[in-house]
């Protein structure tokens, strides 16, 4: 059986390839990437793959039994890009597609949900067997600005007291590996999130505890938070998107207590404290 991973050089994709290579022979893994030269360190076969080049996708998928379709990073273009991949997979005779969707995509207040729902619908209409992994937030999303939080003694956001059931990328990768290697998950849609939820106040407290700095959470109105992100150099559309996601989190968009992720991977999800510790190293 040959398993292919799209976006294999991305932050999630690299985790998936590494964990999959520990479970099956590396010659049964194919990395699908825009630039195969950048995938040499993955130590698996790599093929050129660009979601926006439908004319080249089917040939790149020849001989693939199971495909992990990691959602595109190009928000606003996902419906077309994912549709290209699904159509190519059908043409190439791929046996099953595992797709990384969004937690509670059918009810989520996040503006990201629409493209994921459209992709889920395209999968179901394609006739290709599928497994949908509705991934929650990555804990690492909140640690990318750790140096700034330590410099200013503040974590800023608009999430209020909203509880966030995030998990580490490695946890979601473990779920993907299981979905790729188990046939009994075909046709399933699985809601994936961390075992334990936290607020951004809790996050700031954990950073303080481990760093020795007095880091507090500063909650801001959505528009003010967006402007603060623009002021530190983020493009305005991205800044407003991030602020909007935080505002949705304040209303529970990132919360889930079903513990389906830990049930699937057979272990507890990575604690917040461990991800903070790794980021502080």
Automatic annotation (TrEMBL):
**Pfam family membership, one:** NAD_binding_10
| All copies of domain NAD(P)-binding, residue ranges | 7-145
Domain of life here? Bacteria
Q: Which InterPro entries match?
A: NAD(P)-bd_dom (IPR016040), NAD(P)-bd_dom_sf (IPR036291), NmrA-type_oxidoreductase (IPR052718)
Q: Which CDD domains match?
A: TMR_SDR_a (cd05269)
PANTHER family referenced in this protein's UniProt entry, alphabetically: NMRA-LIKE DOMAIN-CONTAINING PROTEIN, QUINONE OXIDOREDUCTASE 2
UniProt name for this protein = SDR family oxidoreductase
Source organism of this protein record: Sphingomonas aliaeris
């Amino acid at each position: 059986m040959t398993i292919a991973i799209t976006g294999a050089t991305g932050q999630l994709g690299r985790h998936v390839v590494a964990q999959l290579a520990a479970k099956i022979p590396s010659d049964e893994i194919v990395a699908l990437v825009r630039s195969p030269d950048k995938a040499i360190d993955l130590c698996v076969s790599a093929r050129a793959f660009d979601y926006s080049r439908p004319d080249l996708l089917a040939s790149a998928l020849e001989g693939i039994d199971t495909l992990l379709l990691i959602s595109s990073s190009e928000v606003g273009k996902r419906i077309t890009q994912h549709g290209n991949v699904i159509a190519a997979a059908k043409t190439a005779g791929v046996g099953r597609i595992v797709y990384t969707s969004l937690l509670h995509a059918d009810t989520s207040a996040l503006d990201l949900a629409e493209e994921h729902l459209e992709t889920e619908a395209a999968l179901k209409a394609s006739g290709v067997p599928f497994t949908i992994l509705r991934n929650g937030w990555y804990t690492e999303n909140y640690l990318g600005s750790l140096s700034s939080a330590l410099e200013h003694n503040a974590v800023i956001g608009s999430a209020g007291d909203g509880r966030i059931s995030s998990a580490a990328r490695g946890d979601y990768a473990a779920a993907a590996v299981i979905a790729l290697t188990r046939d009994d998950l075909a046709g399933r849609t699985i809601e994936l999130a961390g075992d334990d939820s936290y607020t951004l106040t809790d996050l700031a407290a954990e950073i303080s505890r481990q760093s020795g700095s007095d880091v507090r959470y500063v909650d801001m109105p959505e528009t003010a938070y967006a402007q603060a992100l623009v002021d530190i150099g983020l493009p305005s559309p991205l800044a407003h998107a991030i602020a909007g996601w935080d505002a949705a989190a304040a209303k529970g968009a990132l919360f889930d207590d079903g513990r389906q992720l830990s049930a699937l991977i057979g272990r507890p999800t990575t604690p917040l404290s461990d991800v903070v510790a790794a980021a502080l190293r």
